[in-house]
Design brief:
Blueprint lengths: L2 H24 L3 E7 L16 E5 L5 E4 L2 E8 L2 E5 L18 E6 L8 E9 L5 E3 L2 E2 L3 E12 L3 E8 L5 E8 L3 E9 L18 E9 L8 E13 L13 H13 L1
Antiparallel strand pairs: 1-15, 2-7, 3-4, 5-6, 6-15, 7-8, 7-14, 9-14, 10-13, 10-15, 11-12, 11-14
Amino acid sequence: MKKGGFLLLSLFLFFLLADSAFSDEITENLQSILIEKFDNPNPDPEAKDERPWIVQASKFRTIVRDPNDPEKIVEEFPKVAYVASIAQALHREPPEGVTYRSLGIHGRFDRKADNFIELIPAKKAEDGSLVPNPILLPGRVKNMDIWIWGSNYDYYLEAHLLDYRGINHVMKFGSIKYKGWKNLRVNVPRGIPQAVVYAPNLKGLKLVKFVIWTKPGERVEDFRVYFDEFKIFTDMFESLFDGEDLANPKKIDQLWSETASN
């Protein structure tokens, strides 16, 4: 074989092997996944898209006390309700016997400032109280979107994501200074790590909370905001290999617990 032909063959084999080695890096299985419906006033703890939420606010939140007994609270904000109203763009006519809902927050603060309201995914503790429970987002998340109803107050929305190193990342959905329902979207920067080179490779992000911020000059004495359908657009591709079950955290826990009990 001539030297030139040998060189071309070598280059062909090199690029063939290189393509095989790096194919996992460019292969994608993009899916839109519904994470939360905000639909159920009595969430099923076993349902992935139904969970309780903790709603809390900053220090200037309004607390109404009994004038005759200052220790007695008559009313406090923010308030939460699952209301039978949703964006028409989602479901114009729900099936018979089905009621679609959204999660409403009734807010009130005593003074203008950088006030905030936090919406935190939760679970019930053994004593029945609610404790924070971040949502593990499947795959390698590309972007997130959520439906928000605004009433033209100059507020804005952000989400907090936690990576596997314990670093918090703030994703800014942007202003909710508009009237009615609107779908807000934010891209997840590629610089936020969601995988490692070691098995198991995937190190998913966790949703810690949503935060509504009020602008310092905006009115805050009485307002409402509604949440509906939180979705992600994510890459669910994972390359297969012999023994992949030993890289599955749930399977690992099961296998090792069975071994320990023997």
